[in-house]
Amino acid sequence: MATPARCPADRAAPRRLAGPGRLRGGRVARPGPQRGDRVGPSPVDRARPGSKHHVIVDRHGTPLAVTLTGGNRHDVTQLLPLLDAVPPIRGLRGRPRRKPRRLYADRGYDFDKYRRLLWKRDIKPLIARRGVAHGSGLGKVRWVVERTFAWLHQFKRLRIRYERRADLYHGLLELAWSIICLRKLRLQI
């Protein structure tokens, strides 16, 4: 049996010219607000748009606070907002702690201005110096943060940002941190 012949009415409509918000070749024609907020060109990935997760953890790897910024923001800009976002931590007795005693960080946070601000908050900064050879000993404690990021990237939805709205992506990020904390609690019980 022969297939029916196509008539000109069945043909696909001609493609329109690409304009703001329209697709051209499967991509957005002009980058802009349709990409979402808290997105910026990544300095390490050929300027592709992306986001960064900034996290502060305790010595066991439990996330205390998390923020989301564009891929082009420097890490040190989120240091003080992360410290301010740490909730009160209950201890055995007395007032709950609002700040850590010490802060371990890598070379990206090595600025004298932020060291002074940490000392004013009575936090001892243990930050690796730029231009100094490796071997400062911070790798013995920094691996906890890297392990926490590895736990986060097990959630494939967060590995690559697909959501345009930052509030939805941040909600997924908070949900992932909650699941990580729940898993840690199950291991302790």
Short descriptors:
alpha+beta, two-stranded antiparallel ribbon, globular, three-stranded antiparallel sheet, 189 residues, 7 strands
Your description of this structure?
The chain has five helices and seven strands. The chain has a three-stranded antiparallel β-sheet, with helices on both faces. It has a domain at 18-91 and 143-188. Helices cover 30% and strands 16% of the residues. The N and C termini lie far apart (69 Å). A hairpin with a 5-residue loop joins strand 4 (49-57) and strand 5. InterPro entries: Transposase_11. One of its GO terms (biological process) is DNA transposition.
Present the secondary structure layout.
Blueprint: E1 23-24, E2 27-28, E3 40-41, E4 49-57, E5 63-70, H1 79-85, E6 102-105, H2 112-120, E7 124-127, H3 139-152, H4 156-159, H5 166-188
Number of helical runs?
5
The class by helix and strand makeup works out as: alpha+beta
Unreliable spans = 17-32
Intertermini distance: 69 Å
Question: How would you classify the quaternary structure?
Answer: single chain
Q: How many strands appear in the DSSP assignment?
A: 7
Major sheet attributes = 3 strands, antiparallel
Helix content: 25-40%
Average pLDDT, all residues:
76
Largest sheet: spatial strand order: 3-4-5
Fraction of residues in β-strands: 15-25%
Please give the radius of gyration in angstroms. Answer: 23 Å
**Tertiary shape:** globular
Protein name: Transposase
Region (Disordered): 1-52
Biased composition (Low complexity): 14-33
GO molecular function: DNA binding; transposase activity
